[in-house]
Write a structure and sequence with these properties.
The chain is mostly helical. The protein has one domain: Aspartate receptor, ligand-binding domain (Four Helix Bundle (Hemerythrin (Met), subunit A)). It has 4 helices and no strands. Helix 1 runs antiparallel to helix 2. This is Putative signal transduction protein. It comes from Escherichia coli.
């Protein structure tokens, strides 16, 4: 997500500089739009990830639920920690 964020800002800077110097092209707008869409997509994926984690927690106790604990990444990390 960080790289998509940086890319969006870089494209925005290039677009603004091209506009100020009066040599903008459609490619500048297209690049900025692509960067903005890429960042928005990464942000949406992260929000879905956070909601998934939240939905796998017990509301009353705040402890992780069975689905969270059965996550292969969690299991492999726990195995390595032993």
């Amino acid at each position: 997500m960080d790289s998509a964020h940086q890319h969006m800002h870089n494209c925005g800077r290039e677009l603004m500089l091209a506009i100020v110097e009066n040599h903008w092209q459609d490619a500048h707008f297209d690049a900025f739009q692509e960067g903005l869409l890429s960042f928005t997509s990464a942000l949406t994926d992260y929000k879905i990830y956070l909601l998934t984690i939240r939905s796998n927690m017990d509301v009353l106790t705040g402890l992780p639920g069975r689905r969270f604990l059965m996550n292969p990444l969690i299991i492999s990390y726990a195995t390595l920690s032993l």
